[in-house]
């Protein structure tokens, strides 16, 4: 098939998947009001790849079909550049608010398939072949893929694996004639109602004796026994003027229950092999997927800067404190851009002929960016102040009795009329203060994992790469004439 259009994508979602919202089973996700805005936006994303085909599409290496460039298994710096261009279009389309746009998992599985040498180690050759074949199917069918890689929290004192007698988290319960049977729950499947397929793969290390939890696979969303329980919808039926983000970009999040789900054998990527499970995430996964996440983060931060800057112009706020806060926000966007450039400039071959960016800049960004997003939201609230709430709806401007008064008393400075001023501040509030804004803040805080654990990992990486090469030369008490030979390497 190759790259799909938005119409083809929507048609593919009409199946028997078991979606629940607020105690109600959704019969057809394409006809559910709470999903309408995000569904239209997702369809637009599929159309975008055709509108920007020079950047977004490339030929399948075997069939010649046009596929999204995010499916490329990168084997050169040029492939990473090609992928970057496609990802940038997707990120700017939603100004970074679709955190799980399909290009994220497209790139993820391209990386997994590229490192089939790791997945195929320790006796896992057959299942690694399944993964490689699946990645090819994913690209050629242009499926929207979601994932779930986090176990439910029941009792932090016991840990995720031991909770409910070891029965809460997703695990294998039996072999079947045609595959394996799995049971349990997983969180958090973002984009679940809008996806064609679901993937489970390693999201953190497992002890050697936890083989029943070491299952990786992919299945259609309509697989019998898979129950998809969505949170409340934060989508709004309001106009784009009133709620420009909530009306379009609520990508949803779901709690998944696997109620004795049979996984066909050709869809299994791991079955109890903890050695491969632990190795898979340490073989370039972060370096690979964080190209997409950083491109998205830069787009979101730049948009935030531009939006609140325009809000400030609308009320002629240009005092030193305002400029300081705007400058701080701009700095976060620029640091994100610089980290992305550094990682891509340091790209290299990681094994099996696959190229990924340098992971070290990304490891520095991973625990730090969430604090930036929190601060960005705070800056928008500080600069927006009460103006974020002095925002009548679009309907108020359509009222002939109110319109003259609103035009007079809510007009802005620098040529901004009342309608435009209110539109800007409504957008800023939807970005940081609405239900979707609150969800997005939480998403940015945790979607890359625990900052505490990331910083601990960063120290391990730092100890490995840096050592004491700068300390000894400076602290050694050697004669002056021998100093040149002991100068730090960077001199």
Written overview of the protein:
This protein has 18 helices and 14 strands. The model has no long low-confidence stretch (mean pLDDT 95). It has a 6-stranded mixed β-sheet, with no helix packed on it. The protein has a 4-stranded mixed β-sheet with strand order 5-8-9-12. It starts with 5 loop residues before the first helix and ends in a 16-residue tail after the last helix. Helices cover 46% and strands 14% of the residues. It has 491 residues and is an alpha+beta fold. It folds into 2 domains: 6-280, Butyryl-CoA Dehydrogenase, subunit A, domain 2 (Beta Barrel); 285-465, Up-down Bundle (Butyryl-CoA Dehydrogenase, subunit A, domain 3), CATH 1.20.140. It is globular, with a radius of gyration of 25 Å.
| The CATH top-level class label of the largest domain | Mainly Beta
Report the average pLDDT across residues: 95
**Structural class by helix and strand composition:** alpha+beta
CATH topology tier name of the largest domain: Butyryl-CoA Dehydrogenase, subunit A, domain 2
CA-to-CA gap between the ends? 56 Å
Strand content: 5-15%
Outline type: globular
* Number of discrete helical segments: 18
Total number of strands:
14
Helix content: 40-55%
Largest sheet: 6 strands, mixed
- Uncertain spans, ≥5 residues at pLDDT below 50? none
Q: How much is the radius of gyration in Å?
A: 25 Å
- CATH homologous superfamily of the largest domain? Butyryl-CoA Dehydrogenase, subunit A, domain 2
| Overall CATH architecture of the largest domain | Beta Barrel
Strand numbers in spatial order across the main sheet? 2-1-10-11-7-6
Domain count: the total is 2
